[in-house]
Amino acid sequence: MRILAAMSGGVDSAVAAARAVEAGHDVTGVHLALSRAGGTLRTGSRGCCTIEDAMDARRTADLLGIPFYVWDFSERFRDDVIDDFISEYKAGRTPNPCLRCNEKIKFAALLERALELGFDAVCTGHYAHLVSTVTGLELHRAADDAKDQSYVLGVLNAEQLAHTYFPLGETPSKALVRAEAAERGITVAQKPDSHDICFIPDGDTRGWLAEKVGTATGEIVDREGAVVGSHEGAHAFTVGQRRGLYLGVPAPDGKPRFVLEVRPVTNTVVVGPKEALAIAEIAGERFSWAGAAPVDAEFACEVQIRAHADPVPARAFVTEEGVRVIPDEPLNGVAPGQSAVLYVGTRVLGQFTIDTTVSAVPIGA
């Protein structure tokens, strides 16, 4: 196959590209420039897609003896990921920019260009693997639970899966990938993993949003509507947050309060006891299936609401309005804007963006 290897400059994508070459594929490497402010170098393990990362990717491509290019996707990244991130926070939602990047950039914009240029598939260093069945390809969890990335790939559809190549999915551990990189002479064998949001490399999401959205004084209220504090912008808060509330009125029982809801229209933040974070039901209108859609409109599954959260057994209901999920036990601290990924065993069924939640603890209880 003609393979376009997306090379971030990290060890995972480097080994993935090396394995694609070793498997006999015709491989070309590409690094995506996602920011036009490219003068920064990476600091420690924060951020990604910097000049340093592009140079690391090029060195690996040279070692493998494959063609290498840098493609400027900064405008598309700004429109589809950064602007979406800002608008979601302004709407009182908690987005997942890594999932959106996979959906809009790596497996949409990049894959579209790859197919236009005659490539058969895009290769990445994601930890997940594909299984071919009589009904088509299925997306499954990686062999290494600690590194499994199937959650952020839950947005991929059947057509995208058909042109995707995950060489690392069945590798038992990240340590083996690093050891293999060292054996191959890949210079990034011990390079730290990136974390945090790549376009906020200092990790100060609150400060970054304040610069982009601005500040506006608003009220912090309890579940009954009583004012217990104030803030400088509702966008700076997310469901489940405990720190940085600076409440002027203590709770009657003296226990800590947590953010339960963000209301952007009134610039209000709702707080309450930890118990009220328990969610009995979630639903969303925007959904997609990773491969063949479920046969039945109601089915048993497991639902996962964060990249490294434990899956929870649940019942899902699919209608023309969207997907509704009732977990067997309450979910904790779910925020609108998060993605709920549905599994059956190791298989990813699909995902939806959470629009509404129903608390397991009624007001006044």
UniProtKB/TrEMBL annotation:
Keywords, ordered alphabetically: ATP-binding, Cytoplasm, Disulfide bond, Nucleotide-binding, RNA-binding, Transferase, tRNA processing, tRNA-binding
Region (Interaction with tRNA): 147-149
Domain named tRNA-specific 2-thiouridylase MnmA-like central: residues: 208-272
Residues the record marks as active site: 101, 198
Catalysed reaction, written as an equation: S-sulfanyl-L-cysteinyl-[protein] + uridine(34) in tRNA + AH2 + ATP = 2-thiouridine(34) in tRNA + L-cysteinyl-[protein] + A + AMP + diphosphate + H(+)
GO BP: any one term: tRNA wobble position uridine thiolation
Domain tRNA-specific 2-thiouridylase MnmA-like C-terminal: 281-350
Record-annotated site: Interaction with tRNA: 126, 338
Chief subcellular location: cytoplasm
Disulfide bridge map: 101-198
A cellular component annotation (GO) from this entry: cytoplasm
GO molecular function per UniProt: ATP binding; tRNA binding; tRNA-uridine 2-sulfurtransferase activity
Protein name: tRNA-specific 2-thiouridylase MnmA
Localization in the cell: Cytoplasm
SUPFAM superfamilies the UniProt entry points to: Adenine nucleotide alpha hydrolases-like
Designated gene of the protein: mnmA
Primary role: Catalyzes the 2-thiolation of uridine at the wobble position (U34) of tRNA, leading to the formation of s(2)U34.
EC numbers on record: 2.8.1.13
Positions of ATP binding: 6-13, 32, 125
NCBIfam families, A to Z: PRK00143.1, trmU
Family the UniProt entry places it in: Belongs to the MnmA/TRMU family.
Lineage, uppermost ranks: Bacteria, Bacillati, Actinomycetota, Actinomycetes, Micrococcales
